[in-house]
């Protein structure tokens, strides 16, 4: 019986693991793991040690010893802005980079092009009192699905054009390597941006809030609900362990599906206390960015 299952599933699993789109997504999440884990550990320090009602702080009575202990949370709170809150940007770059590596094309410029394409189709600016603000809602976990889609499409277009000598620019040998490298893929980048600009225009006719809002409503929100469902956890766990029995690396095989479904739910449970305002301070958006996310309080409640 086991031999029969192996004969059927092993070729499928091998093909799935070697499929460049699946492996690009899987490896992107693996590469982003250290950043997310490091920021999570720092935030854990914020809540366990620097919060007066935190676990360690309560045991050691740190709140009594240091009356202004909670104010120290401001030191580590911005860490989330450099990790989880820009997760979509990181995944966009990494997926596109992995795709370019598979196609043996310029991985750095492919990743940067994907980031540019991501912002081309990003949620439009909101005009408030004559000033334009960009919502940060979809830069984090809620924008992961669009990030993956944009990265896959942009990298496919980029790589297919970049390996076509008729749409690449070859500079003379006297030109510095960095300049020659940039000009070589100038036209592929141009066509990628044109493609996503047209796509964005058409999508805004359907959904005025852009691709992110459309995808999140139709696809990612239902997937997030699946990720918080015990049935999904059990099914993926059973499949992974069943593949292990057959000698197949189960977690790696289902990694792309697992990460896509669970990432937003996993990242959203990471607590992030808001920055404490100084007396009389007026809150203003940083660098013209306005967030539509509700942040948990120091006690972890919204």
Automatic annotation (TrEMBL):
Q: Where in the cell is it found?
A: Cell membrane
Tell me which residues make up the PTS EIIC type-3 domain.
5-302
List the GO cellular component terms. Answer: plasma membrane
* Bilayer topology annotation: Multi-pass membrane protein
GO process annotations (BP): N,N'-diacetylchitobiose import; phosphoenolpyruvate-dependent sugar phosphotransferase system
Annotated transmembrane regions: 28-50, 75-96, 108-128, 143-162, 183-203, 230-248
Mind listing the UniProt keywords for this protein, alphabetically?
A: Cell membrane, Membrane, Sugar transport, Transferase, Transmembrane, Transmembrane helix, Transport
Gene Ontology molecular function: any one? protein-N(PI)-phosphohistidine-sugar phosphotransferase activity
Q: Does the keyword Signal apply?
A: no
> Which InterPro entries would you find in this protein's record?
PTS_EIIC, PTS_EIIC_3, PTS_Sugar-EIIC/EIIB
Q: What is its EC number?
A: 2.7.1.-
Q: What is its main location?
A: membrane
Leading EC class? transferase
Record-linked PANTHER family: PTHR33989, PTS SYSTEM N,N'-DIACETYLCHITOBIOSE-SPECIFIC EIIC COMPONENT
Name the record gives this protein: PTS system, lactose/cellobiose family IIC subunit
State the organism named in the record. Klebsiella variicola
């Amino acid at each position: 019986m086991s031999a029969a299952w192996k004969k059927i599933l092993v070729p499928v699993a091998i093909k799935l693991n070697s499929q460049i789109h699946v492996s690009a997504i899987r490896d992107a999440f693996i590469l982003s793991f250290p950043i997310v884990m490091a920021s999570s550990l720092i935030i854990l320090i914020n809540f366990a040690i620097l919060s007066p009602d935190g676990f360690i702080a309560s045991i050691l009575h740190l709140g009594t010893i240091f009356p202004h202990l909670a104010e120290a949370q401001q030191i580590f709170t911005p860490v989330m802005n450099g990790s989880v809150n820009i997760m979509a940007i990181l995944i966009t770059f990494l997926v596109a980079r992995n795709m370019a590596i598979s196609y043996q094309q310029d991985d750095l410029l492919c990743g940067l092009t994907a980031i540019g394409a991501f912002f081309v189709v990003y949620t439009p600016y909101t005009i408030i009192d004559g000033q334009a603000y960009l919502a940060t809602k979809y830069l984090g976990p809620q924008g992961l699905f669009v990030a993956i889609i944009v990265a896959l499409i942009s990298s496919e277009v980029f790589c297919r054009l970049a390996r076509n000598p008729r749409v690449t620019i070859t500079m003379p040998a006297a030109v510095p390597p960095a300049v020659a490298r940039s000009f070589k893929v100038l036209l592929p980048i141009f066509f990628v941006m044109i493609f996503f600009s047209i796509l964005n225009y058409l999508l805004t006719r359907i959904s005025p809030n852009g691709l992110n809002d459309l995808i999140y409503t139709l696809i990612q929100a239902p997937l997030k609900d699946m990720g918080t469902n015990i049935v999904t956890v059990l099914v993926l766990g059973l499949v992974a362990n069943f593949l292990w029995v057959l000698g197949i690396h189960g977690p790696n095989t289902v990694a792309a599906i697992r990460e896509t479904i669970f990432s937003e739910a996993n990242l959203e449970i990471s607590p992030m206390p808001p920055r404490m305002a100084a007396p009389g301070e007026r809150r203003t958006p940083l660098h013209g960015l306005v967030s539509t996310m509700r942040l948990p309080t120091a006690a972890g409640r919204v």
